[in-house]
Amino acid sequence: MVPPVPRLIIALLLGAASVLAYAPAGWFPLIWLTLGGLYILLDGRASENGGSFKNAFAGGLLGASFGFGLFIAGVSWVYVSLSVFGGMPGAMAALATFLFCCVLSIFPALAGALFFRFSPNGWWQRSLYFACLWTLSEWLRGWVLTGFPWLAVGYSQAPPSPLSGFAPVLGVYGATLMTALLAALISEALRRWVPVEARACSRNTWTKPARWRAVLPILIAVLLLAGGNALRNVRWTSPKGESLSVALLQGNVAQDMKWRPEKFSESLRIYYRLALENPAQLTVLPETALPAFLGQVPGEYLDELKRLAERQRGDMLLGIAIGDSTRYANGAISLGQSEEQHYSKTHLVPFGEFVPPGFAWFLALANIPMSDFTPGAKLQVPMSIAGQKVAVNICYEDAFGEEIIRALPEATLLVNLSNVAWFGDSLAPAQHLQIAQLRALETGRMMLRATNTGMTAIVDAGGHVQSALKPFTRAALLGEVQGYEGATPYVRWGNWPVVSFALLLAAFFGRRNAVS
Asked: Has this prediction a pTM greater than 0.85?
């Protein structure tokens, strides 16, 4: 069964509007309403048609429409990377972006179909079932085919949202669960305050008992917000050692110029000058700051960077490809008073950093330099630099919280090296910074981000952006940072508590409704 076109359009618009709940707009309460609107659409269809596998198709279409609206509005920067910087013909880039968003929409479609088919009768059971299904769909999206967890609902609840307090306990998917539950509760309260039958009648048919039925879901929603806000005041980790000075360098080298051989010397000069003029105990250069293999960089240049770091009795961390033209890793090395150490990126980006089997033709259409990296080991010890244990992650590795916590609780500081110049002046840099805020919250550690064009920032252990550079400027972000020790509940248990809870509860409600 296909839902009426107006419902599909409403779901699409609700999904697109949800993007405003994320950075850079940051209207986090909006997604309580947009996701709640989808809940009403789905629940309305279920109540009208009853559960059947045939009619579940309608729920799947509504979920897919919402998801497509969210992704086509929220990750449209994929087109920029493929067309503007990847050299792919515009029509092919648009088609690839469209198909990518369609694939991502499969996951909310699955949640919609299951909710439509097995939705329980009681309002609180329905609310919980919806929240569990949505959480599981996002967890699957962050895992299947190497995962793409971008725009998980929980990211929209970065500080100052009161629901951010759940992140150190349950992670970003726990924040998703609470947000989806809150959205469903708000919808249930609104439906009881303005009953469906009353909308078609006069105002005199609204009775007090109908309105009082809205009190309980409102009360639970308030308690949910209050509980999350209270958790924001809990300090799960404690400072370790003295603070240290940092300099995060943003070279602002244009992506279409960066890999040209004639521009190589200019890149070396830019970062040397920034490091020289902004001394600090820990200096961080972004991902592939030096556009060459490590062995191709003049030894005297690296020696001079090392001396700059040693003058501050500190270290320098820089992103560079490690290896040779046949086997290489997207990596980072340290230079300075500490022993030289290396990190190799583990979670590679499909098509951008490795070629999935059968897709060599895709890269033939695009011009992406160094697109066949070798992944690093999954378990790499934190770097011992500048008196800290630094857990390095590169580019969108920080979108995977369960991978970041592998280095914890040993690591005292998180450092991300990124180059999102591939996405131009789009939503991507601000969205990426918001992801970093959740990683800081989940781990109880500060997160330092050094990027080529933005957003270079310092995020404190509470998930707040302490300071940031203006995008597309050449500068250094200076600041004082603190290492932390200890473990949050999320560091100890990862995603399994919230995923197990959602899976068991969804299976219970689904099985009970299937046999009833």
From this structure: yes
